[in-house]
Structure formats: structure tokens, C-alpha cells
User: Fold this.
Amino acid sequence: MVKIWVDGSTTRVCFVYESGATQVINLHKKVTVNEGEYYALIHALTHALARGYFELDVFSDSEVIVRQ
Assistant:
């Protein structure tokens, strides 16, 4: 099981693996905070899938994402 923490803002998204590997991605347009949170989740899941990680624990401080 791989643990990933995600966070997004209006201009950047970030995700961190439990190993400490960190990805920060600048968005090409300004988005809402909720959109930024979703972009962070999407980028983290895409990144994990590309590396062959299929069992994940994803953590977020976004109530919108966590409740869905």
C-alpha cells in the first residue's frame, strides 16, 4: 500500500509520497481552490498508475474530496 498526500491551490498542485518524493506542478491557468484540489488528486493518481502503483491510501485536507 502506497500513501500519497495531495493538496491544490489556485495556481499549483502538489502530491507527496510516503517515501518523501514530491511533485509540484504549476497550473497553466488560474482555477478555484476546489478545482486545484481535484487537479492534485488527478495528477497524483495518474503519476501512481504510470509507476505501477495500484493500491493507494490517498490523504487530503479538502473536505469536498474526502467526502466524495
